[in-house]
Amino acid sequence: MVGEAADGAETLVAVERVSPDLVLLDVQLPDVSGFEVARVLCDREGGPAVVMISSRDAADFGHRLERSGARGFIPKSRLSGAALAAFAS
């Protein structure tokens, strides 16, 4: 099943409802940092794998990506099914 959310609060609700294996999460959300949402999701036992995305380069975020608990990061310019599959397992 696939879900979609417009902001961080909706993401948390959608993850509860849909129970996805993988969440593709933008770093910049309108209501809260994607890093904060990632930490919440990654701290849940049995929670989904989180892959962060952004139009900016990973180097722009420093250690925040590592501390978020996300499984990885993909720049939007390189986002593809193959790139996601590398983080799904």
Structure notes:
With 89 residues, the chain is of the alpha/beta class. The chain has one domain (8-88): 3-Layer(aba) Sandwich (Rossmann fold), CATH 3.40.50. The chain is built from 4 helices and 3 strands. The chain has helices at residues 8-18, 34-43, 64-68, 81-88; strands at residues 22-26, 49-54, 72-75. The protein has a 3-stranded parallel β-sheet, sandwiched between helices. α3 links the parallel β2 and β3. α1 packs parallel to α2 (34-43).
How is this fold's topology laid out?
Elements: H1 8-18, E1 22-26, H2 34-43, E2 49-54, H3 64-68, E3 72-75, H4 81-88
Parallel strand pairs: 1-2, 2-3
| Tally of distinct domains | 1
Strand content: 15-25%
CATH topology value: Rossmann fold
* Low-pLDDT regions: none
In angstroms, what separates the terminal alpha carbons?
17 Å
Key structural traits:
89 residues; alpha/beta; Rossmann fold; three-stranded parallel β-sheet; 3 strands; 17% strand
